[in-house]
Amino acid sequence: xxxxxxxxxxxxxxxxxxxxxxxxxxxxxxxxxxxxxxxxxxxxxxxxxxxxxxxxxxxxxxxxxxxxxxxxxxxxxxxxxxxxxxxxxxxxxxxxxxxxxxxxxxxxxxxxxxxxxxxxxxxxxxxxxxxxxxxxxxxxxxxxxxxxxxxxxxxxxxxxxxxxxxxxxxxxxxxxxxxxxxxxxxxxxxxxxxxxxxxxxxxxxxxxxxxxxxxxxxxxxxxxxxxxxxxxxxxxxxxxxxxxxxxxxxxxx
Length: 253
Description:
Order of helices and strands: HHEHEHEEHEHHEHEE
Number of strands: 8
Shape: globular
Structural class: alpha/beta
Radius of gyration: 17 Å
Strand content: 15-25%
């Protein structure tokens, strides 16, 4: 499927400031809720598959939700993003005082091949025009046995309804073109890009709002994302989905 000529609006991240961490009327609150379940899962999977004290790159790190959590878990972490203002927020929130934050274009990374044990690209691939190229670069930057963690959105009617229209209708301060349907990625497409780059997708799980909860409907009625708003994992990548790919032999994990 060809991507629309209209580009995803990534400029609004520069305007968030401390809203990254406290605004309940902006979709960034949904990202915080995603991270509440996603970060512990990533940390656990890294520990169980690779252990500790690793070299990790977080691509499109924003204000450091995942990046700072990785550093607190004892890893050597580099976070990159195009938004300098978001990186300033991330640095202020880095309790470890050890993260290396860099303003970089993901299509022009200066790192040597096989530099990282783990690379993360969360809520990033659906914001760029050529995600396959990023995955190719990831494969060259990973050490043998390295792990690639990703999160993105499936391209189907339900994703359009929930992730685009639903957020626009229910969250007051949603920026225009925050997401564009044609930029969403079918799991089969992501798997193919990984395979073409020498990566093997070993785990994939759905990640979606906990609709059957009081917090979901309260947030919907109040048009404000409550602090108790939750996401849940599922066996099917129907809307949002996370996964792990490895440069290892498929039998190694």
